[in-house]
Write the structure tokens for this entry.
Amino acid sequence: MAVKIKDVAAHAGVSVGTVSNVLNGRDTVSPGVVERVRAAIDALGYVRNDAARQLRAGRSRAIALVVLDVGNPFFAAVARGAEARAADDGYVVLLGSSGADADQERLYVDQFREQRVAGVLLTPADAGGDVVEHLAAAGIPVVLVDEQTAGDDVCTVSVDDVEGGHLAVAHLLEQGRRRIAFVAGPLSTRQVADRLAGARRAVADVEGASLEVIETDAMTVLAGRAAGERLRERDDRPDAVFAANDLLAVGVLQALTMLGDIRVPDDIALVGYDDIDFAAATVVPLTSVRQPAEALGSTAVDLLLRQLDGGVDPAERQVRFQPELVVRASSGESLRP
């Protein structure tokens, strides 16, 4: 049978209220009584039922974060930012990875809802789904992370991916590259579509420039390597590649350089996206479009806590960051003669 708080009180010879005060760290209990209560807790093996306590209080101290792929260092950085900001206010972050699968996402959301989390931070697997409405109906506030909405009824934090795509390809064009391939990932992903739109805008500004789109079924190193292997087998290779994220770019780089007959950037320049931690540590340091991943996570938590504490002004619900191009060796300035 589970030990209850009244058992601890009887063992220590104090009231239930005194035990509660000790458990909650209140300084109204004398040191000697605190020591007796803690000794009783240890002797009986008492464990506080936080779920029941939260149910009575009406609010959990946990925030859920559901991302597309926790194996992607970009989302790991988002989670770091969220955890740091949540800890400032005494909250913890519970993490789920949907694998970009709407059914898995719904499973996580339902589980977190049953645990009465204070709120949910969500990178939706299906931007057109009903998860936000599902949570709103349960009275659980939501912030969309790395996503945008047309209206101002939902809080969002995002990055201008159209501008990011434009930055990447405009840089390659400035280096004299004209035959550019975009290794895309799934084009149904909003972020990929926006990056492609920005890339096309840059190409449209330069006479004689072209953009080839190479779609992959995932945004992973393996998918990038497969795309890079297809490119290296061609006689009509592009002279530059823009990859929709750094994992794809790393895979492309591996495939192009593995036999030593193609040089990056001399033969093919390469730009990635996200500027993950090891972008600078690849065999040829990777030029990348930097997203402020930790700021996305911390800002999302801040918006969620403001919702819990009274609401967010409609004009402040949509936070959009600007990307930054970080130039490294993979997009060198000179073309091979």
About this structure: The mean pLDDT is 89.
